Amino acid sequence: MSPMIVSINPENMPLHKLPFPALTICNVNQAKKSVAERYKKFGDSIDIKLLESLCSDQTDADIFEDNIAGNADWDHTRSFLINVTQPCNEMLSLCIWNSASMNCQDLFNAQLTDEGLCCTFNVVHRENMFRNPRDLNDMNITFPLPSVDWTPESGFPDNAPADGFPWRAKGIGTDHGLTLVLDANVAEYYCASTKSPGFKILLHNPTETPNIAKLGEVYGPGIEARVAIQPRILDAQPTLKFIDVNKRLCLFSSEKKLVFYRTYTLRNCEMECEARIMLDVCKCVLYYMPKNKTTRVCGKADAKCYGNMKKYVPRGRERACEECLPACTEISYFERPSSAMLSKFLVGHYIQSITLAQNKTAEYFTENMLVIHFYFEDNSFMRFTKGEIFGLTEFLSNTGGLLGLCMGFSMMSAVELLYYITLRVLCVARQSKSIQPFNK
Q1: Transmembrane segments in this chain: where (predicted)?
Q2: Which domains does the chain have, with CATH numbers?
């Protein structure tokens, strides 16, 4: 009934076999104030409605009238989001990777997520993430070379170079991690997705698309934060494939192929499932969902449909994507943060080293900047391995032991009992008859 057991693997995973987590960073500010005011003053009715939908608690179906919604297609909305959101070159003031100061544009790419325009780090090359990357209709993205085909199940190839992408940390501590200085630009806040200024930051698997609106951690400006990365590693023995899926409740990558993603993970499967359901019901998908060039992206005319999809569950199911099971081999990342307030008396050397902040005062730095360090604190990490609780080897050994015990009791004990009752008695009797008494 329960053929699987999860145990602690005695062999830890070394640091050089684990990729640094992918990071997605978004400014919680949904629109720059200067751009928003320009749209309100000189923009057309569509841009004004788009700005209202971005900053209002009302649903898109309540904001857009039928005569305007048809003109608010995805191409127009995409240009609006890119223009109104803080770009990555303004958000990222300083990037230090493995103690080397690097151009932030070489480390981060702009990506449209469910939180708007965000910046991503260490996500695998799109050739290794998607099955047909050329069919994607997305933003122009550049990746550092050489690229490595890493997956949680197969790991890094044996011939992977040490500086292969996705990157790996070369040691523990902040000296071998990622240090960022982020500019919130609080004066440009027009409306935010939270009740406070700052950033949403999500650590995730490099092969996954981030779901940052629901899962991102919030970090405010004016602090220095240290984030110790704690990976959670689950793997499985190959013999687990012979156990029925309904009993082991996990999937190997070869057992379920996704349409868009090359690597099977629970979140990738759920992302595809949600997109497929929305495409079936609304005949379109949201802009951050997996899609190809022929898939229609939902415009504001579809607001009544996609606005009700959050609670939609197909008939005959208890939940929308119940066919998506966890992967048998999964790697996820959790953070253990600590922080302290910035002091304007201690940030002078930072201002001198940051190109975008050289014209900024110490007061601006302490009110708008976030200094954050991401790093590992261990050289090896515990693994939890799923395996058979009673495999062929255990069956044979237990069966042999039980049979040995049974035979040892029935046969040997019977022979010994027969011996003591018959032969032993006869031998003792014959020995007693042959004894002669002493003669005088």
Answers
A1: 402-423
A2: 4-388 (2.60.470.10)
